[in-house]
Amino acid sequence: MLALIKIKNLMALISLFLLISTVQAEPLSAKQVVINFQNDLIEVMKQGKKLGYQGRVEALTTPVLNSHDLTKISRIVIGKQWKAFSDDEKQQMIKVFTELSIASYAHNFKEHSGESFRYESEEQTARGGVIVHTYLVLPKDKDVQFDYMLKKKGERWQIINIIANGVSDLALKRSEYTSILKREGFDVLIAKISEKITLYSQQ
Amino acid sequence: MKGLENNQQIKTALINSLLLSAVLLNGCATTKDTEITAETIEVPSEELLSEEIDNDPYEGFNRAMYDFNEVVDSYVGEPVSSAYRWVMPNIVQTGISNFFNNTKGINVVLNDVLQGKFQQSLEDSGRFLMNSTVGIGGIFDVATQVGLEQNDEDFGQTLATWGVPTGPYLVLPFVGPGSFRAIPGVAVDTLANPITYLGYPIQILAILNARANADGALKFIDEAALDPYVFTRESYLQWRDYLSTDGNPTLTDDISEEDLFADEEYTVEPIDIDDDISESTDTVLDESKPKD
Fold this sequence. Notes:
Order of helices and strands of chain B: HHHHHHHHEEHHHHHH
Oligomer: heterodimer
Strand order of the largest sheet of chain A: 1-2-3-4-5
Structural class of chain A: alpha+beta
Number of helices of chain A: 7
CATH topology of chain A: Nuclear Transport Factor 2, Chain: A
Shape of chain B: globular
Number of strands of chain B: 2
Radius of gyration of chain B: 25 Å
Mean pLDDT of chain B: 76
Low-confidence stretches of chain A: none
């Protein structure tokens, strides 16, 4: 009897699970991932002063983690050296890089003075990615072109690069990081990233 | 009488030192003002990312020059520029900035034509004429207000559209980031700018203006860069690529395939990003409990 109840429960659980997964099975489109993230960013900017740096970090953590594939980004910015990293080093790199990404958003988007994002178009890349073209509209200056490159991670579209007026964040970081790794080594790289995070938190 | 002589000497000394600073500063201003100096990159971004392709074979020399320019800038460029920004009211700075920007208009039209952009050359001519007349010699940027946006063209971009390769990256003392192709680029841009033919007081002002305008970008580099030399080089090369392709660099090739898929075997989640989902799952499961 007990066993029967257990099986019934199990069946109920499984059917519930299936139900949930069908609801969840409609992943956001690449465009929607970008737009949602930009909306979150503008919201945080609007409350930026009130929140303070720490508040902005907390408010941005989930939006950044949900929309960016920081594991993949960490790997790409390290380049070929990644394979030579120990598991500890890999984890450490992903950890500080994640912190840096959130910290730099919290630092650079600290207040709102009429900025907004405008969606322009999207295109498929030959390698199964999507590029979402948007503009950061500045009230007193020329618009800044923001192109987001997304890749699918499982079912979810995630940002792996942001290109602002043609300057690729991924390429820039990769050049810097590989150069530091080559010249000064892993510990210095981690120390420099950590130093940056501290600096952001103080300003 | 003696006092007057002293005054004269002080004046001469001041002018001399200002001139010297201007010469030194000129380098620093162009060093940082990546938008102004000419030169472009033709290497596709994918190659930029690839570690085998070296766009900076003279890195040792370049780093030395970069450090030198940094020192000069921190002793001369930065202090003089701060003084300038402190003395000049904002509205005057904007006027001065507009004026010098407008003098670039002739060069923009010239390069529009050289690149075969005839429609754009008409618009840019209209823009230059409007700002030079209604905008009182370019002090007011009337054209932007009526919707005639400024186009950014220079001889470095023209050379790029003609298929001249970038050549290696090069940092020159007092001149800053560039490449082998930048040399003819800057030469033509300088010749096509009326400021070149004016006296030194105007040129000093042009330099002060350029350095002051670059201030925001320089502070950003200081703040964001882990390795300012590499940061400057990469953003310079990419920005030039963006300009010479008129805002359409080959984004699709931004990351090589190997890089995108090589990490599939290794996936570590630093933080559980599925928190929301597992929470909602738990809630629903909890609700099922009373049915037991």
